[in-house]
Amino acid sequence: MGTTEQAAGNMSASASSSRVGSRDTQLDLLRGVAVAGMFFFSFVATLSDSLPEILTHNVPGKLLVGDFVLTLFLFCSGVSLALVSSRYTTVWAREVWRKLIVRILQMVGVSVFITPFSAAAVLGMDEMMLNAVLTLPAFLVIACGRVWIVLCALGVWVLRDIFVSIGVVPALPTVYLGGYPLAVFWLPIMLGGALAWSRTEREIARQLMVWTALLVVVVMLSGWPDKMALAPSFGVLSVCVGLGTLLVFRRYGVRCHWLEYFGSKPLRMWCLMFCLLGPIRLYASVMYKRMALSESPFTAVVVSLFWMGCCYLISKGWDALALGRRVSTEQ
Predict the structure, then answer these.
(1) Number of domains, the chain
(2) Domain presence at residue 165
(3) Average pLDDT of 161-185?
(4) Average pLDDT of 289-304?
(5) H helices then E strands: how many in the chain?
(6) Could you give the CA distance from residue 36 to residue 219 in angstroms, rounded to a whole number?
(7) Domain range for 134
(8) In a domain, 1, yes or no
(9) CA–centroid distance for 119 within its chain
(10) Which of 41, 65, 103, 193 could bond to 79 as cystine, CB 3.0-4.6 Å?
């Protein structure tokens, strides 16, 4: 085998060596980072109304670390949908649609109970509902192939700038995440994730360079990345962050069991998080007419990390009980 072929083989092996069974541990890790980030930043923002800037997110005109946890989650969802699509010879297979419908119903079902606390409105737009709304259109575009994925992603961003320029879409939406009418402007981030599925390190690196070049152009045309304005530049930057992080995880074989666990059970972690976060937000809204308490930033961080650890242990205990019941039934 030649040197070039050996290098290609090594990269392919590296990309697949992180797969255990049918799961991609690096993808679980990336999703786990997103879930843990949403957990942490949501909690500290609810517990303290005097956070330093590094702990804040969703601030118009600002570009903050916490702004990328949602987009990392969307990016991972795109990778996951591409994986589902690749496993079947036709996207119209009954099993494909069963998986999609179950996934969407699970997210919507959770949102029925969570959105009064997460979005301050029954069935309002929050992170989980946004994912549910985008799952079907993203899957249909992904099934059409890479060319359509690229054209759709770029087309959505171009339309967004056109609509803003003629006043059809507000430059700064007043509803969190833009609400249902503007959900489509988050779709390209999920499609960007789909392009990264089953790629070697070299291919991911090439994609990252292309998206970085695109970022420079988009920033020049549409302005500074701003999450709350749904700016195309923020969407392109989010794909770059997703690709770059995934590349690092692939290249260095990064592992972290508890984050991988969070990434393998995002819906459960979202539910457990709101077991405490929901009552706190309800209390704050009733007592202080706002969504946040006035604890110190230190207290907010400690409580957030403590409850994150509690949710991990609760979930692991749940798994142990389920396994025990299964073994007992089989016996």
Answers:
(1) 1
(2) yes
(3) 93
(4) 95
(5) 12, 2
(6) 29
(7) 21-330
(8) no
(9) 17
(10) 193
pLDDT at residue 115 is higher than 60: yes
In a domain, 280, yes or no: yes
Run of H or E including 47: helix 25-47
- The answer to whether the beta carbons of residues 135 and 142 sit under 8 Å apart is no
Distance CA 49, CA 294 (A): 5
Average pLDDT estimate for 255-260: 95
Q: What b/e string do you get for 132-143 counting C-beta neighbours within 10 Å, with b at 16 or more?
A: bbbbeebbebbb
Residue 122, classified by CB atoms within 10 Å of its CB into exposed (0-12), middle (13-18) or buried (19+), is: exposed
Residue 6 has pLDDT above 50, yes or no: no
* Whole-angstrom distance, CA of residue 9 vs CA of residue 299: 49
The answer to whether residue 45 sits within a structural domain is yes
Label residue 11 by pLDDT band (50, 70, 90): very low
Total Cβ atoms within 10 A of residue 182: 17
Residue 222: pLDDT over 90: no
CB 269 within 8 A of CB 262: yes
The arithmetic mean of pLDDT across residues 226-253, rounded, is 96
Strands (E), the chain: 19-20, 23-24
pLDDT of residue 23: 72
Q: Per the structure block, which two tokens stand in for 176? A: 């969190």
Q: Which residues contact 233 (CB under 8 A, 6 or more apart)?
A: 215, 218, 219, 222, 223, 224, 225, 226
Q: Where are the alpha helices (DSSP H) in 59-200?
A: 68-86, 94-118, 127-143, 146-165, 187-195
In tens, the pLDDT along 55-90 reads: 999 998 899 999 999 999 999 999 999 998 888 888
Is residue 232 a contact partner of residue 160, using CB atoms and an 8 Å limit? Answer: yes
Q: How far apart are CA 63 and CA 301, in angstroms?
A: 21
